[in-house]
TrEMBL record:
This is Peptidase aspartic putative domain-containing protein. The gene is LOC138929094. Residues 90-149 are annotated as: Disordered. It comes from Drosophila kikkawai (Fruit fly).
Length: 313
């Protein structure tokens, strides 16, 4: 039986599939990711973000695996972890050199005195042995300032309720979407998510040294805002805010603005924190302070967040 002739269309289709399979998802060039010049110029953190967002294998940087799992035995050449060397982020710092004391050219060198935790009376006695005529001032004990009594501290806690800035966000996993509360905290360096919540959302994660990370798309419920974010998995990320419910009158004070979390005055457990790595992309111009004793409101891409101390009788 004679071989079936290949048409020009089938050859072109096969060539196109081969080209697309090796097309770099970072610069759209025809090369593997590990040879991409734009990718290699990025910082390790941005490389990791590019790998997770574009769904590359974090171990070998392959665009896909035929069997679904990576069979490469090559780990990181710097730490031995199960990730590619280009994704290594724990840089070793050179030991800092302690400056050696140098003698002044006009004065004779003296042996540096080692600091001690001796009693003040002992220090004064040691100083009096010096040959130079130096007057030693004997410090009198200062009166101790007493801490606030337990009753006062308890009273303050009973009247003041602290609120952390939260927003209801849409987490897009690619196949499903979920709504969950997130806290916006610029004091946290890396955005994080509780492990159990990531498992409930079925977010695929990868190991990076001693840490595990996953990626997801965050969306606003009302606008067109969309953000690709890398989240660090935390085994126990559960933040309670507020510690007790606020009055409906406090909630009504913020009825004229579009809130990011309409139930900010009700206690809830937060398992998703958006940190300093994405903070600048979430905050918008707009700050609202109504009156003393009430929290403040800050405009964000998700709406207005409410935070601060509430003084309730």
């Amino acid at each position: 039986m004679a071989p079936r002739p290949r048409t020009a269309q089938s050859l072109e289709s096969r060539r196109s599939r081969g080209t697309q399979s090796y097309r770099c998802r970072v610069c759209r060039g025809i090369h593997p990711l590990r040879k991409c010049k734009r990718f290699r110029k990025l910082s390790a953190e941005k490389r990791l973000r590019a790998v997770l967002i574009n769904k590359y294998c974090s171990n070998c940087l392959a665009h896909q695996h035929s069997e679904g799992t990576c069979r490469s035995q090559d780990g990181c050449k710097k730490c031995g972890g199960s990730h590619h060397t280009l994704l290594h982020m724990h840089e070793e710092r050179a030991p800092e050199r302690t400056p050696q004391p140098t003698a002044s050219p006009s004065r004779p060198s003296r042996k540096p005195v080692q600091p001690t935790r001796s009693h003040p009376r002992h220090s004064a006695r040691s100083a009096s042995r010096s040959s130079s005529p130096i007057r030693v001032a004997i410090e009198r004990p200062r009166p101790e300032v007493s801490a606030p009594s337990t009753a006062v501290a308890t009273l303050v806690r009973q009247k003041t309720v602290h609120i952390l800035p939260t927003a209801i966000v849409v987490v897009d996993t690619g196949s499903c979407t979920f709504e969950t509360a997130a806290m916006i905290d610029p004091c946290m360096a890396v955005s994080s998510i509780d492990r159990s919540l990531a498992a409930a959302f079925r977010l695929p994660f990868t190991s990076l040294g001693d840490d595990e990370v996953c990626s997801a798309t965050l969306r606003s419920r009302t606008g067109n805002f969309k953000l690709e974010v890398v989240l660090k998995l935390d085994p126990s990320l559960k933040i309670r805010t507020p510690i007790r419910a606020l009055s409906d009158s406090t909630r009504a004070k913020f009825g004229d603005i579009r809130l990011a979390d309409e139930q900010f005055h009700r206690p809830a457990t937060i398992s998703l924190v958006l940190g300093a790595d994405v903070f600048a992309k979430l905050i918008q111009p707009g700050f609202l302070k109504l009156e003393d004793g009430l929290p403040v409101a800050q405009s964000t891409v998700f709406g207005w967040t409410v935070s601060g101390a509430v003084l309730e009788s």
